[in-house]
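In response to reviewer comment 3 from the previous cycle, which asked for concrete evidence that the modeling workflow produces usable outputs, we include below a single protein chain processed end to end. The sequence was submitted unchanged, and the resulting structure tokens are shown without manual editing.
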Amino acid sequence: MDLKKLLYFVTIVEEGQITRAANRLHIAQPPLSLQLKALEEELGVTLIERNNKKLNLTPAGWTFYHRAKEILNSVDGMISEVREQGAGIRGKLLIGTVMSCISYLPRSIQTFQRKYPLVSFHLWVEDSYRVEELLQNRDIELGIIRLPLQTTNLSMVRLQAEPLVAVQPRDWNIFEKETIAIEELEKYPLMVLHGQGGQGIFNQFIEACQAFGINPKIICESPDVATLLTLADSGVGIAIVPKLATRLRPKGTLSYAEITPNIKSDTALVWVKDRYMSKAAQHFKEILIDSVQ
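The workflow returned the following structure tokens.
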């Protein structure tokens, strides 16, 4: 079995249709269909069920897809490593981040671009749970997330611990000081940052409320911190977000106060252990860590 067969199968799965896969591969549809049939005959299993032109992967198909993608990514990594050694740094750097941590990136990217102008960036903005998935699937090399980690095979460098803040609409004038007691928030409609993983900021805030016997009125949960800030700016309620996230809005449009007692949200730069990392990613990792410390 050669790598071309693996590439054809992975492309068919990702495109969800043989016609689109053929267009992406720049080959005709009939030969691609024959390649798929030959692959199934070689393996002795059905990989894809055809139903009214809709392609559905069988369990064996899913297993073969994930293994094939791992092999293709591994080969790409090997080729990139060899080429980088001979030709210097160039190409594309794949990074994932949560929106509330995006403020870590501008200065680091500018510094990196001055040193390595031939490298471009492909940036995913997801919640922490999804960023970890992207790392596992080799879609990105580095991720900036909020702890705790959901998986165990990641290496990390802690970047910063930020306090949670309450962000009020501009015309509410609730906050007259730089801090607000958590008990005070029980009186107001709240909107809290909540990721897919079931842990993190939302749980931290709820646990802190429970410790003080508070039953918060949460009217909105969202993994998108920019959405919460927009809703707060529109007067919907008070957003509970990490302090760094307030940089996403222009100064003066919103006001905030740190919640007391202090509730901290930890951030980290993460990557997969014992996996080849491109030189571009290695250099960016060093630049980002230096910019925070």
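The longest strand covers residues 154-168. We consider this sufficient to address the reviewer's concern, and the full set will be provided in the supplementary archive.
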